[in-house]
Specification:
seven-stranded mixed β-sheet, about 260 residues, about 15% strand, alpha/beta, binds zinc ion
Length: about 260
């Protein structure tokens, strides 16, 4: 399948400016009126980076959902992808239950996620079904091609979901107020935190959710996921004047604040 045309990305950028700016201005939206959708390339990505934020919004009365584009089933040298994929799916279901999140799975294989029309159409229909007010996904640059593909797919999907002319199982939807990018150790290049959310009271729920995954508990990957993300929450919290925080990036064109006078 061909990559999404750049024109679609440009249109999406214009729409995103219109969508993100009011969201940043309305920082104190009423609790319970938000729907936060986290989209990750591999099962575990969304929860480890954004799980505390999801737990926070769930606690505030908002609805939260996760879309895993692949199971990330290729990451265990001791198991076949098929067997590890079954394990990852079970782990993802437990993690979602702990967070109180609805969970969706894409049909793609680990390492084979591509920026295609097919992928954008699939994600657009999930967006139409979930009706998120806020979407969190991968930053644009990453060590992992699947993560970079996820960035492009989600941005293309956000545009498609809003178009009446694109027909899918669910009707068009234009309620996304903000698009944010997650603080993922693999997506660090050019990632400059812009929005910080206090998750001091949500780290316990985050830890309970992410430790449903064997790769996060340790023993599969040499990367110390739990240590890294616990320390990161403290580091982001320190900068934000909180005990623990989740930091998010936004698109460069969304970094614009307008006032009648200096605040
Ligand atoms: Zn990943």
């Amino acid at each position: 399948m061909p990559a999404m045309p750049t024109t679609a990305r440009r249109i999406r950028r214009v729409l995103a400016v219109l969508a993100v700016l009011p969201a940043l201005a309305a920082a104190h939206a009423a609790a319970g009126d938000r729907v936060v959708l986290a989209i990750g390339a591999h099962a575990g990505d969304a929860e480890v980076t954004t799980g505390a934020l999801l737990a926070r919004h769930k606690r505030l009365g908002d609805r939260v959902a996760i879309l895993h584009l692949t199971l990330g089933e290729g990451g265990n040298p001791k198991m076949s992808p098929a067997a590890y994929g079954e394990q990852k799916k079970r782990e993802a279901l437990v993690a979602a239950k702990v967070l109180g999140a609805d969970v969706f799975f894409g049909p793609w294989k680990d390492g084979e996620l591509r920026d295609t029309e097919e992928a954008a159409r699939f994600v657009a229909d999930v967006i139409r079904q979930v009706k998120p007010t806020h979407v969190v996904t991968h930053w644009k640059t990453s060590l992992h091609p699947d993560h970079e593909a996820a960035f492009r797919i989600v941005n293309a999907a956000l545009l498609l979901a809003s178009l009446e002319s694109f027909v899918s199982a669910h009707p068009w939807y234009r309620g996304v107020r903000g698009v944010y990018y997650a603080d993922n150790w693999e997506d660090a290049e050019g990632f400059t935190p812009y929005v910080y959310v206090d998750v001091t009271e949500d780290l316990a729920a985050w830890k309970a959710a992410v430790t449903s995954y064997e790769f996060i508990r340790g023993g599969i990957s040499s990367f110390p996921y739990l240590d890294y993300y616990e320390a990161l929450a403290r580091v982001r919290g320190a900068v934000a004047g909180k005990r623990s925080a989740v930091a998010l990036e936004v698109d460069p064109f969304a970094k614009k604040r307008v006032f009648d006078a200096l605040p």
